[in-house]
Design a protein that fits this description.
Blueprint: H1 11-28, H2 32-42, H3 64-73, H4 84-88
């Protein structure tokens, strides 16, 4: 099977990666090329063909929106804390990280 995603090992994984990319495009306004780059950078540590629905990877235990936020803001940004709560905890405003600065989002 030839997948359009380096890390996808089956059609289910490919569809999930597509869903993450679509979320990035629709909710953060990035191009599809940038969305793909963010995902591939975030999971560069996975070997080729690693993700399969049968593998029961922790990747599939989160929604596509969760991963999209991680790939947009960075996994250590505490993006789920918003508004006044960010200020209360002394967190900086949310800003997108550059695709080149995205490091492995653990799954």
């Amino acid at each position: 099977m030839t997948c359009k995603w380096r890390i996808a090992g089956d059609i289910g994984a490919e569809e999930f990666l597509d869903e993450i990319a679509e979320y990035l495009v629709e909710h953060f306004g990035v191009s599809l090329v940038e969305a793909r780059a963010r995902i591939e950078a975030g999971w560069a540590h996975f070997p080729e063909g690693h993700l399969t629905l049968e593998s029961e990877s922790l990747v599939f235990h989160e929604e596509a929106s969760y991963w999209a936020h991680n790939f947009y803001y960075g996994s250590s940004s505490f993006w789920w804390i918003t508004g006044e709560a960010r200020q209360k905890h002394g967190l900086p405003p949310l800003i997108a990280v550059a695709p080149s600065d995205i490091h492995g989002s653990e799954a």
